[in-house]
Amino acid sequence: MSEITTKLLVLGGGPGGYVAAIRAGQHGIDTVLVEENRLGGTCLNVGCIPSKAMIHAAEAYHAALLQSEDASPFGLSAGPPRLDFSRTVAWKDGIVGRLNTGVASLLKRGGVKILRGRGTMVDGKTCLVETDTGPERVRAEHVILATGSVPAALPHLPFGGRVISSTEALSLSKVPATMAVVGAGYIGLELGTAFAKLGAKVTVVEMAERMLPAYDAELTRPVARRLAALGIDVLLGAQATGLSGDALAVEVGGDSRKIPAEVILVAVGRKARTQDLGLERLDLDMSGPFIRIDERCATSMRNVWAVGDVTGEPMLAHRAMAQGEMVADLVAGRRRAFHKVAIPAVCFTDPEVVSAGLSPDEARAAGHEIRTGLFPFAANGRAMTLGAEDGFVRVTARADNHLILGIQAVGAGVSELAAGFGLALEMGARLEDVAGTIHAHPTLGEAFHEANLRALGEALHI
Amino acid sequence: MGFRIVKLPDIGEGVAEAEVSAWHVKVGDVVREDQPLADVMTDKATVEIPSPVSGTVAALGAEAGQMLAVGAELVRLEIEGGDTAPASVPESGVAVAPEVARAQDAAAGQPAAALVPAADGLEPAQPAPGSAAAPKPVEPPKPAPSKPASPAPRPAATAPSSGPPRPAGEKPVASPAVRRRALEAGIDLRQVRGTGPAGRIGHDDLDGFLNAPPEETAPAPAGRVARTGVEEIKVIGLRRRIAQRMADAKRRVAHFSYVEEVDVTAVEELRAALNQRHGASRPKLTLIPFLVQALVRALPDFPQMNAHYDDEAEVIHRHAGIHVGIATQTPSGLMVPVLRHAETRDVWNSAAEVRRLADAARNGLAARDELSGSTITITSLGALGGIVTTPVINRPEVAIIGVNKQVMRPVWRDNAFVPRLTMNLSASFDHRVVDGYDAALFVQALKGLIETPATLFMEA
């Protein structure tokens, strides 16, 4: 067995791990990154990126379908579209492949050594990696645990056969005729919507009384309307009880129902990946199922750090990246702490949902007296020209000093507004700051401007 | 314009690295030739590094308290019309730099240490008059004046300039750049008043906080006030060395202490008589020279006490010469100047030398070889009172003798109580190499010598 001694070992090549490794490399830190599968982790390979590709393809197909049915609002008609789904998947895989290569070359440029294989921690400084060419022992001064998360399974609906997770849903060989989605969180709704647009009959089963339970009802209402328009059945307060022949057995309000389902997508959340990594040999304090970290991403062991999904919610790639970057700085001897005002979250549903900071309810619960401003896209010129008038931008600020506490939006394409929302919150903007900033016309961003004006009682276009 | 790079010279102890214990300049300062740039500290000595040229400080190679390799970039100076050739400090400018040429050789093959660039908002060096270890007091938050049920105070532009920066529990508002700068400068933003909109803390507020006089005399609120500030003091320089050595001694040496009461009536009478007889014509005698004489008399019979134990090599070096370390409190901390070859000195000579060494140590003028090489140490806290001390051995020595306070006590003697001046000797030994029996015999021998001072001066 050969032995490698390094300053920094990063276990896991997802967004948290690879960003940490790149930054460490830039600092001139001797770094080894251990990845069992492909670089980029869940996000790049079976998460954010491929799902967005599928969603885009589904939208294009769906728009073409409307045109062929003469249902295009602006009078465009075309012949019936044909979809070669295997090429859709190949196109998606091509994007993933290019990004994989990109990450690898960024790591290489930073001088990071990549070890392919399964890494198991032996102690807080040593990792055993089963590579293709035999086991390697890596000894490091610092260790970053960035092992990510895996789809959570339901005990009575274990993965296998027709029961699939988001991972398999992104590599189906054909569009299923019927699909049941268990879980109305953002993963289930994003993929369910995409497959509905591709032609599947989709039914969503959610145990809670609301879909997208992480967001408030006002924000999710346009999504619910759109799901209904797309013919997606959403069963709330419904429990999937198991397979029943070709169908999914569901109990709703005491009634048993059978939902025909060629494919059953279980999307009930993700759980931290802490198994089979040798973590039990480390003296790590846990916080529930997650590795407990402090504001510097330090675990209970000196010089053992953890970033990303394995440290808990929110399980978002950009949180992991920010943590990874910070820990690399810390290892380089800089003073850092994870003091963020907001970690924006985006749902690529139809329409899209963005939330940064506190919702009005959360702000009130935190003891703030607030004022809010909501501006509907129905009054935004650009939204009209896009044929996407459903939705709004909503801002919540403190009543006393107008400090913005949170910004949410729902509408077509609003994910791109997340940048401005995040910046306003991190900079400590007041309503007057955004109100006093010229927002280019005609853009969806004007709705953000107007929401701030409206919160000040000075809206112009409503 | 060009840059002149000043590298850390070899300051002559064959050491590979040294600690930058204090900066005399900060980024942006204009320096003249020979103006001191930084204090650099090795095991024993602090050396001032002067600037070889006049220029403007563009970057510092380390923060105060950091270790820097010999030959690494210490300071980058921006100079008029110069080239960017690296330069070591010329010999003339350095206090102890006999091997500058070697330093330059070493520098050639060594990557420059990470620099602290000027643009980075770091605050690596306070202009430190005296010592960079000067603590920066964190302003304790004053309690909010209790105004029950009053409306939330209007912050923003109307923020009052006194009182707490913001109500308790309220998070400070600051941009990410300000937050990072504060973190790197070790500032808790909760203590900083924000003058921006909604009480936002800007770079100017941070500058103001950093440059604020240490004590802001706000009108004291009535009644007793909870103090919640935490003062952060970097353990650097001499203090860090003391900390390391003490921890090392406690970790490695198996200390045991032995305390005995000694009747010092006779020796004190002798001392007073000698001081009176010679007045100012001879150095004033303290008890220390007599204790040194007692050691000189006793140690030949106890050679295991005047020794160094090299615990890594597992060898004991018994020394023929008696070099007595005298623990001395200095403004920057504990130092141990050495009275060399005590066996060659009489009490007056010892007294003069002890005084000279103490002054030198207190004034930071002690030479390196005056601060090393002791074979046994005396520590005296007697003047401050205290019955017993448990002195920490000055490794690699194996014994240390502590002097406690002199007290007049009634002593039972010849069927009556008589007043006697007594004093405790608290001695510690390294039990790994000194047995308790021998230690007891040694202390008893010292006691005998001191109680009968004539024996101190009789040739054996």
Automatic annotation (TrEMBL), chain A:
Cofactor note: Binds 1 FAD per subunit.
Catalytic reaction annotation: N(6)-[(R)-dihydrolipoyl]-L-lysyl-[protein] + NAD(+) = N(6)-[(R)-lipoyl]-L-lysyl-[protein] + NADH + H(+)
Annotated keywords: Disulfide bond, FAD, Flavoprotein, NAD, Oxidoreductase, Redox-active center
Presence of the UniProt keyword Phosphoprotein in the record: no
Domain FAD/NAD(P)-binding stretches: 7-324
Enzyme class: oxidoreductase
Family matches, as NCBIfam families: lipoamide_DH
Additional detail: The active site is a redox-active disulfide bond.
Protein name as it appears in the record: Dihydrolipoyl dehydrogenase
Naturally occurring in which organism (per UniProt): Methylobacterium indicum
UniProtKB/TrEMBL annotation, chain B:
EC number: 2.3.1.-
Ranges of residues in domain Peripheral subunit-binding (PSBD): 173-210
CDD domains found in the cross-reference section: lipoyl_domain (cd06849)
Keywords noted in UniProt: Acyltransferase, Lipoyl, Transferase
Gene3D superfamilies: 2.40.50.100, Chloramphenicol acetyltransferase-like domain, E3-binding domain
Cofactor field: (R)-lipoate
Enzyme class: transferase
Biased composition range(s): Low complexity: 121-136, 212-222
InterPro entries: 2-oxoA_DH_lipoyl-BS, 2-oxoacid_DH_actylTfrase, 2-oxoacid_DH_E2_comp, Biotin_lipoyl, CAT-like_dom_sf, E3-bd_dom_sf, PSBD, Single_hybrid_motif
Source species, domain of life: Bacteria
Subunit organization: Forms a 24-polypeptide structural core with octahedral symmetry.
Pfam families: 2-oxoacid_dh, Biotin_lipoyl, E3_binding
Bias (Pro residues): 137-154
Domain Lipoyl-binding: 3-78
Organism whose genome encodes this protein: Methylobacterium indicum
Region (Disordered): 121-224
Listed name of the protein: Dihydrolipoamide acetyltransferase component of pyruvate dehydrogenase complex
Family membership noted in the UniProt record: Belongs to the 2-oxoacid dehydrogenase family.
